Amino acid sequence: MKRVFLAAATAAGMAFAATLAPGASAAEVIKLKLSTFLPASHPTQKDFIEPWVRELETRTNGKVKVEIYPAGSAFGHVAKQLDQVRAGVVDIAHGLTGIPRGRMPRTSVIDMPFLVKTADAASRTLWDLYKEGMISDDYKGLKVLALHAHNAGLIHTRTKQVKTMDDMKGLRLRTPSQAISMMLKQLGATPVGLPPTQVYESLQKGVIDGNVFPYEAIHGFKLYEVLKYHLDAKAYTTSFYFVMNKRKYDSLPADVRKVIDEISGDPLVAKFGGWWNKWDEPGKEDIKRVGNIVTPLSDEERARWKKALAPMIDAYLKEIEKKGVKNAREIYAEAQKLVAKYEQ
Length: 344
Hints:
Elements: H1 2-18, E1 30-36, H2 43-59, E2 64-69, H3 81-87, E3 92-96, H4 119-131, E4 142-149, E5 154-157, E6 172-175, H5 178-186, E7 190-193, H6 199-204, E8 210-213, H7 215-220, E9 229-232, E10 239-245, H8 246-251, H9 254-263, H10 266-269, H11 272-290, E11 293-296, H12 299-322, H13 328-343
Parallel strand pairs: 1-2, 1-3, 6-7, 6-8, 9-11
Antiparallel strand pairs: 3-10, 4-10, 5-8, 5-9
Helix pairs in contact: 2-9, 4-11, 4-13, 5-12
C-alpha cells in the first residue's frame, strides 16, 4: 500500500513539474512586479512594456515571470510609484518624473519650454545626461533601465480657441510637472495638477478648461471627445522613467542581470522616437475625424512666447539650485547642446 502511495505521489510530482516553464523549476522562478501609471489599453503597454517583459521571460528561459500592474490596479497610482519602487513594494516602475513634484529636479530640466521638438532627441538627451552622471543623483537606490520623453506637445482646450499668449489668460489647464506649471503661469494660465486618468472627467465637468498633452494622449484617454481646440505649440515635453529597485536587481542571478542590461539602456532608449511618432498618429486621426480644430503657433507668436518665458526658465533654474542642484545651469546647457546634436 505504501509503494502505491509513493508511486502516485511521484507521478503527481512529475505531472506538476511538466506544467512549469521550460528550463525552470518552481523554486527557480523569479517573480517580479512591474507597475505603470498608464491603462492596459494604452499603446505603451502593447509596444513597450509587454514586449520588454516577454523578451525578459523568453531570454531567461522562464526563470523570470513579470506581473504587470497598470493604472487602476493595486500598484498603478502615478503619485505612489516612485516610493513603491524605491521601497521594493514593486520591483520595476514606469512613471512620470514630474510626479511627485520636485523629486527629480535634474531630470526635469528637459521640461524647459522650447528646448526640444522630438521624442527621439529628448529621450537620447536624457539618456546621455544620465550616462554622463549629470542627472544620476535623481535615481539613488534605483537601477535605471531607460529614460524617455514625448514629442513636443500641444495646448488643448474645450471651448476657447488659443492662438496667442493673450488667449491663455485665465485658462485652467492640467499640468504634468512643476516646470510646465511655471510655464503656464508665466503665459497667464492657471496650472492644475492632475493624474492623466482624471483629465477626461475633469474636462467633462468643467473643472478644467484644457490641458497640455502630446497627440498620443488625446487618443489614449479619448480626450478628443471633450476637447474642441488644439494649439500645436511644440512648447514643451514631459519625461518618464523606467527603473528597477537596485537591491532587487543586485540580488538577481548574473545571467538574469545580463539579459536585463541587454534589453534596456541604449537599445531601448533608441526605440522611443519611433514609438512616439506611431503613438501620436491615432490622436491626430481622432481630431480630424471628429472635426476638432488644430492651430499651429505662428513664428511671430512663438518668438513672443520665448521672450516671455526667458525669466521663467531663469527662475526655475534658480529654484532647483536652491534645492541643492548647484550645476543646474550646466545641466541645462548640456541638454541644449545634446538636443541640437540630435535634432540637426
